[in-house]
Amino acid sequence: MSVRRFVAPNSREAMRQVREVLGEDALILSNRPIAEGVEILALAEEEQQAAQAAAASPAVQACRESAAAPAGRMPVPPASTADPLDFAALGQRLLGEMQNMRALLDRQMPASATGGGCRGQLRQRLLGAGFGPCLGDEILAGLPAELAAGPASAPALQAWLERQLEARLPLLEDEAALLDAGGVIALVGPTGVGKTTTAAKLAARYVMRHGASQVVLISTDSFRIGAHEQLRIYARLLGVEVHTLAAVAPLEPLLAGLADKHLVIIDTVGMSQRDRRLLTQINQLGAAGRPVRLMLLLNAACHGDTLEEVVGTYQRATLAVGARLRDCIVSKCDEAARLGPVLDILMRHGLRLNYLTSGQQVPEDLQVAEAQPLLRQALAASQSSPFVPEEVPDGGGRRLDTWARGLFGRGRSLTAAFEGLRRELDGFALLERAWRLAALPAGVQGERLARLLEEEDEADDSGARQLLWGSGKPVPGATWNMPLLTLDPAGRLQLRPWLAHLLPTGYEQRLDWAFERLEARRHLLAATPEGGFLQALTRLRSPWIGAARSVNRAEFQGERRALARLGEVAENHGSLQLRHRGRPLWLDLRYLPVALRVAGERAGEWAAWPLQAWFGTLRDVDSGRSLGQRYWLAWSPETERQALVEQADGVRLLLAGEDLPALTLRAWQALGELQAPPRTELRLFLAAALATGASRLDQSTEDWAMDLRARLAGLGGGRRPRGPAQQLDSLLHLLAAGDAFRQLGDEIGY
Fold first, then answer.
1. Biggest alpha carbon–alpha carbon distance for the chain
2. C-alpha torsion sign, points 86, 92, 94, 96
3. pLDDT digit string (tens) for 492-527?
4. Over the stretch 36-87, which tens digit does the pLDDT of each residue have?
5. Which residues form the AAA+ ATPase domain (predicted)?
């Protein structure tokens, strides 16, 4: 096993050398300061794979347990060649501890080695804004490598941090839907939090939308002097009906008499979280005879420990009477030095933030919560406030609470990942539904899948699409052909595979079906079309672009030449920057008008069909080093200028999809390892959909993809592959984790 040593003036330069020589997935063994600067010992990716293969052999299974080292200890490479048994044991130790060592080095490396200390700066900023260390660590665990490892601008880090907080903060999506739904809303919370004025403000917003005739105010606060009268004054100003009720009186008779009113707002008596009468109050609301929607008011100016106690107590009280507390309003925002503590509470407890209040004016000082301005205001406090956060380590009796919060954080990350994938990947919700079919008896899986796809296709309104066809031959290593995949008009892969054996037989029949059913506007082919397929495309005059090989021949200036030679005289088309197999690359494109011999109408008759030949060179973004050549042939009925633009885009799409057969095979094999593997059709559908989702996730350069890649990277353990294979494994772990959480919820009654 060859351990490489790198020495540089600083950690950033040393890490750059490691990535350039050993690749992004090199295993860092040690990092220490020396007289010359910094020394890093690293192990190449292929060495790790060799160690993994050796460690998996039957001869070394017995030594694994004894070879495992305690977490956090650094294994030392042997000074001399070890026998095979020792080599395998060391390899197993290295692989098993890789994640621990990565985390350890993140903590130990100086600022220059961790992206200019951005992780520490972000953590300090969250703490300074009032967010807790538990939430901060959860968020920073998903810091993308693109931001953590290289120079990242302050705006990019700020935008990323805001996105992570926004993804964790449940907000009221549509105020109109809330008010239009009506019903009974009860404002609950401690004394002095502003329930009475908030009830008036909420009623005023309804009056502005629907008028005063269908809203009613009820006050149950008979303890506070003047509470009933205060609400009556607001009611007269608004022109709405008002009723008063003793705190212990039943609500059911009054609500029964108000059944014709669209919205009833109840201003309850303030109850401290330590008041034993709190459970009685919540029970009274639960026995009102009509469903009551509870909204907890939280004082933004309160200390975080107090807010934690309030939320925990009120949530337990509502659970005790068989209800759930899901909504809240944050009051007195104008009095709070920092908003981080109350937002941290909402995120960790999953409370939906409906409104913010910041004064006494009705209704001006009640605003619908908006994520971006709210989070920017919260984060700005860490820069303007003299507050210096102090971290108190958890210990003793708090360890159980810390563990529980970590578990909740895991659940929040899981939920956020699912929501992001549903929002960004066309067809991910369909993949989820198909995934759950695998839990059904094998005999009904095919029928249920057919029914599910029929429902999906009836509701589909994607419009004209591009089609990504398989090669027409079984995928190497498999007995099945690659399913047909579709791309939406914007060129984004859709997670709805079409199984090849269910398509019409015959080239012309398939193309006619594709035109009528999928509104095909262009065909992306795994290989240059030949024979009947080429003839069918030619007759239909359908635009296409197909992958080719360097030895494929085309006619140029009256001679048939290999594409590898023709590339020397091709015209430059420019360069595209893209992600390919987990890394950013440049694609340099050239093109050349050529011709392909096509069989004519009569036997023995041939014609020269004009095409464009495309030549691509992949280059590393940092070093400019060439990473390979690609070739394509294309035809389009458009003008040359428009055709070149369309075909260059098609080249990009074909390059992005060239790993899909191997990814589908990988997913097929992984699904076969389940305790009860799905039946063939469902298994192939799931495999192709998973591969498509992994490819999209890996190829996209948008912020959502960067965030999701980092979020998903924490799922699963052990050695992780690079590029789309990593995203595929992460999706498999995500879906399996979702099953586990659902099963756990069913078993404990949630």
1. 104
2. negative
3. 999 999 999 999 988 889 999 999 899 898 999 999
4. 777 888 876 555 555 544 444 443 343 434 333 333 333 333 333 333 334 3
5. 181-414
Say if CB 46 and CB 21 are below 8 A apart: no
Give the C-alpha separation, 89 to 75, whole Å.
11
Residue 746 host element (H or E) = helix 723-748
Of 2, 49, 43, the closest CA to residue 722 belongs to 49
Contact status, residue 273 vs residue 190, Cβ threshold 8 Å: yes
**Residues 6 or more apart from 466 whose CB is under 8 A from it?**
486, 487, 491, 520, 521, 522, 523, 524, 650, 653
- The answer to whether 413 and 142 are in contact (CB under 8 A) is yes
Residue 190 gets which letter from DSSP?
Answer: S
Q: Measured between alpha carbons, how far is 487 from 467 in angstroms, rounded to an integer?
A: 6
Q: Name residue, tokens 């005790």.
A: 320
623 close to 20: Cβ distance less than 8 angstroms: yes
- DSSP-based three-state secondary structure for 183: strand
Burial class (CB in 10 A: 0-12, 13-18, 19+), 212: middle
Q: Return d(Cα 733, Cα 339) in angstroms, integer.
A: 35
Strand, coil or helix: 642: helix
Give the C-alpha separation, 99 to 126, whole Å. 25
Distance CA 631, CA 651 (A): 9
Tell whether pTM > 0.85.
no
Is residue 91 within 8 Å of residue 55, measured between CB atoms?
Answer: yes
**Start-to-end Cα distance in the chain:** 51
Q: What is the pLDDT of residues 643-690, one digit of tens each?
A: 999 999 999 999 999 999 999 999 999 999 888 899 999 999 999 999
